[in-house]
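Q: My labmate handed me this sequence with no annotations at all. I'd like to see what the chain might look like in three dimensions before we decide whether it's worth expressing. Could you predict it?
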Amino acid sequence: MYRWAGEKSNKITHLDEFAHTFLSKCTLAEMISRYMVLVEVEKKILMMRPYQIYAVKAIMESVRHGSGNGFIWHTTGSGKTLTSFKASTLMKDNPGIDKCLFVVDRKDLDRQTREEFNRFPTRLRGRKTPTTDMLVRRLLSGNNADKVIVTTIQKLGLALDPKNGYTEKLHKLKDKRFVFIFDECHRSQFGEYHRAIKEFFPRAQLFGFTGTPIFEENATYKRIDGTTASFVTTKDVFETLLHAYTITHAIDDRNVLRFHIDYYKPETPCLSTAPSTNKP
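A: Here is what I predict for the chain of 280 residues:
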């Protein structure tokens, strides 16, 4: 059970406002047809939470208008994989999109994500890419079943590296409209692989999900532009914050546990235990 909320996670508690925002014909039809998810293995239907719906809508609107890249800041434990899954599967019904790639960062996360996807009906799952060869075949396929692909950024990087012999085959895809959704856009997204994707697919839109966005104060990777050095942040890479659901919102909704922090300050300064090097 959860309370309905507005786009900025403001709770809607009055019946007339709830009826206006949720029970209108268009909204109700959307909720039933687009934002319910059948969990096949558990034989139950999930209704997406408000913040998940707003995030998916923001991505779909950005794709519809072709308005650049974006990122979703949803705190850890808030169901980012379900949200990104729904966003990617809705791309399957968009005739203006040639391919949607759901990109993860590590092999173990790749397996974890596929297991998560396997909870849902077969027709909605992204196609697996156990090898780089398979990824390339899926990319070149005109079959609608291969429109949504689950892969790792490492395999994608290998496919786009001219040294590996795939780029000649993939060259005809350069002008296609691709959407990339990164589930957990960590620091590794800021490297050569990410740059290769943007250079090879100039018409692509990139969307990242993160619970821990990189800001200037916690950035560690420096980019050199001529003689100017600067920190690379999530906003530098993905441009626009499309939706935020922070730890404060999640605690308020009881989606995650509260934090308890104790501060300890010693009464006396700590003395070094290292042996003295001074001679008597």
